[in-house]
């Protein structure tokens, strides 16, 4: 190991019987050519065709310098050597970081199964249809926490880099979630596992700043269904006076709870409306009407996200 000349052997990925040392940044990973070749045709070719630049041997291992992000390479190798690695990635932010890192290299080294698995894991947190989004528990008023979605920054950056259709499809929701992050996260970026920060590009940061205002307006429009107007109660209502009084109470409560003034226009407040309607004595018909009207208004916002963030050009480029 003394022969590594300023390189740091990876603590996680250093097999003493390995026969190749991959170097990215100042990180060195001692692994097996056979394992890498089994997963990746790009590595297979690299090891089959004699590489004059790999003449250097340390400890009997060929040394291969890669221009990759060391953290991404660590994620990729961890996933190769430990098939439960992905499942252990824990919280949404870590999943996004690990998945984005693996995606970047799985795409480059043509490891289809890892690419697909990473997309699959991301799609669980970033649904691409309104119905799936609306029925995902983490996007319901309680327990929704904007800060839990800081991993969106990783997703946006990898989607920008690879520009594959399945990742571009997740961009509108990722931008929406980024808009809900506080200024510190948005400007200084989300912390990576190695302590560095992952930031949005200046253009994407601008999209979020402009998007916040658009979402606030959209939320204002969507929540007009809580205003005290006759169309906001059900045509089948037989207790109109009582339901009007309840609607007024719900609207005042929404004002006080910042539901009308926030930019989280897509947070599912259906269960909140349902609970208020029930406890305050609104009839079932009006309660359902209220929830459905708000849900329909949110669907319009969802369909407009590409426009809000000016993402239309990506749709064309991926065709
Ligand atoms: Zn009613």
From TrEMBL:
It holds the Pfam family BTB. SUPFAM superfamilies: POZ domain (SSF54695). InterPro entries: BTB/POZ_dom, SKP1/BTB/POZ_sf. Residues 18-82 form the BTB domain. Signal peptide: none annotated. This is BTB domain-containing protein.
